[in-house]
Specification:
There is one protein chain. The chain is an alpha+beta fold. It folds into two domains: 4-197 and 370-464, Zn peptidases (Aminopeptidase); 199-254 and 301-368, Alpha-Beta Plaits, CATH 3.30.70. Helices cover 34% and strands 21% of the residues. The chain contains twelve helices and 18 strands. It has helices spanning 4-25, 37-54, 119-140, 162-168, 226-235, 259-267, 272-278, 293-298, 339-353, 378-391, 405-414, 439-459, and strands at 58-62, 69-74, 82-88, 108-110, 113-115, 146-152, 177-180, 192-197, 199-208, 214-215, 302-310, 320-321, 324-333, 359-368, 371-372, 396-400, 418-420, 436-438. It has a six-stranded mixed β-sheet, sandwiched between helices. The chain has a four-stranded antiparallel β-sheet with strand order 11-13-9-14. Strands 4-5-18 form a three-stranded antiparallel β-sheet. A hairpin with a 2-residue loop joins strand 4 and strand 5. Helix 2 packs parallel to helix 3 (119-140). It binds zinc ion.
Length: 468
């Protein structure tokens, strides 16, 4: 598809695009800090204005019990496909401030890097979408398809009110595809599309023994120590020889990969030594036998102990048998595991492993389902074509080990598939001091998105379309 007209417009206006992003990044829209609530609102208002300036027909704030989201749309023709763009305008806190080499809200361009909080996650990537829309409208007068945009203000605090928002706004948010730009590419010069995200479920465990801490001389030897019982329970959940979770039924619904799918997972380059370095210099990797490190990280489920508490932690010895002990556990889930089913099985395994001399209470918390977009979905194919053309390189389909709650909500609540077309880089230091976004990635990303709208206008199949 010929995009020379769009490229020429973007080239001519690139310096202004960057200046605008710099202004947007000056707003400290830290959603976690109540003191910045006004700033989160200000960033929503500035974004809504920028969406109108870019050419969205309407743009408004959607209020939530927490921070506001922004909704914008430009509906061209009900016969054309409709794409919903998702992003977030809130950002992470900046602590530790002393580790920043320049103030986090005074954006600075150093070489290729635009340095400030939110540059890559996610303000720069949201801004690319606005500029791609602007390029289409100023060059050709109209968009080739219907676009809707929802930009959340609470992603960095767990999207607590977003499910309520999409339930309430289900009609307006109806679309054929959701495009999310809130992730990183596989690496510099190695474009990738994320097609899978793992799900999550969490559980709290409490082991109770005596009603009060006991003297270990007077009672030790005749009373089971809750910390010891907890250690035995936790150790029983995984087989150290095979690396497998031993919870009965844990793997029952797990979809085994085909030979082709394993080849796809293996296609993106992976450096084991570099991974160990990124993982804080661990001496060796550890995981389930029979699977590569990439597979263990993305297509296999896990059970992790996140914390253990109990007993005396102060200076010097204290000779007690503690009254209680506890732990927090999370499981990362893969298709087709369900959080509530896995939570029940883990709870049953813990209760079965609990010795008679103590009592155990297991409290399941929240969860999210794994999501997977087929690699041959028209949206994935279109995004691959657009990325390949702009970056001039093969595009990998990857899966992420983590979870993006809104993507799971779109899938579960709206039945809406998502394509994760992210333009960050692995060294962007998101959530950390000195976050940056490469200006070249910002430039290329806008070009990918202008092409993506052209491609989807003709490639997103009719049968999948919904009324706009
Ligand atoms: Zn983000």
């Amino acid at each position: 598809m010929d995009a020379r007209d769009l490229d020429a417009y973007c080239d001519a206006h690139q310096p202004r695009f960057v200046d605008e992003l710099v202004e947007f990044c000056r707003i400290p829209s830290i959603s976690a800090d109540p003191a910045h609530a006004g700033d989160v609102r200000r960033s929503a208002e500035q974004l809504a204005q920028a969406a109108r300036d870019a050419g969205f027909a309407t743009a408004e704030l959607i209020e939530t019990p927490g921070h506001p989201a922004v909704y914008a749309e430009r509906l061209v023709d009900p016969g054309l496909p409709t794409v919903l763009i998702y992003g977030h305008h809130d950002i992470q806190p900046v602590d530790p401030l002393e580790e920043w080499t320049s103030p986090p809200f005074e954006p600075r361009i150093v070489g290729e890097e635009l340095r400030c909080r939110g540059a890559a996650d996610d303000k720069g990537q949201v801004w690319m979408h606005l500029k791609a829309v602007e390029a289409h409208l100023r060059t050709r007068g109209e968009l080739p398809l219907n676009l809707k945009l929802v930009v959340e203000g609470e992603e960095e605090i767990g999207s607590a009110h977003f499910e309520g928002l999409i339930e309430a706004e289900a009609t307006r948010l109806r679309a054929d595809l959701c495009v999310v730009s809130d992730t990183a590419m596989h690496d510099r010069g190695q474009p990738s599309i994320c097609v899978g995200l793992r799900g999550l479920v969490d559980l709290g465990i409490e082991v109770a023994g005596p009603a009060l801490d006991l003297h270990s001389g007077e009672f030790g030897g005749a009373v089971l120590n809750p910390l010891e019982a907890l250690a035995r329970i936790l150790a029983s959940l995984r087989d150290v020889q095979t690396g497998r979770v031993t919870v009965p039924g844990f793997y029952d619904e797990v979809t085994e990969l085909t030979r082709e799918e394993r080849a796809q997972v293996a296609a993106a380059p992976f450096d084991e030594a570099a991974f160990r370095e990124v993982a804080g210099g661990v001496p060796a990797t550890f995981g389930e036998n029979g699977y590569t490190t990439t597979e263990r990280l993305t297509v296999r489920p896990t059970l992790e102990i996140n914390g253990v508490w109990g007993g005396y932690q102060g200076p010097g010895p204290k000779t007690i048998i503690p009254a209680r002990a506890g732990a927090k556990i999370t499981c990362r889930l893969v298709p087709c595991q369900r959080p509530e089913v896995i939570a029940n099985r883990v709870r049953a395994a813990i209760e079965a492993a609990c010795p008679d001399a103590v009592r155990v209470t297991v409290t399941p918390g929240g969860g999210s389902r794994p999501v997977l977009t087929p690699v041959d979905h028209p949206g994935v194919l279109a995004a691959s074509r657009a990325m390949r053309e702009v970056f001039g390189a093969e595009v990998y389909c990857t899966r992420a080990g983590g979870s993006i709650h809104p993507v799971e909500m779109f899938d579960r609540v709206l039945g809406l598939p998502s394509v994760l077309v992210g333009f960050g880089l692995p060294d962007d230091r998101i959530h950390a001091p000195n976050e940056k976004f490469d200006v070249g990635q910002f430039r290329s990303g806008i070009r990918v998105l202008t092409r993506l709208w052209d491609d989807l206008a003709v490639s997103l199949p009719k049968r999948a379309r919904t009324e706009s």
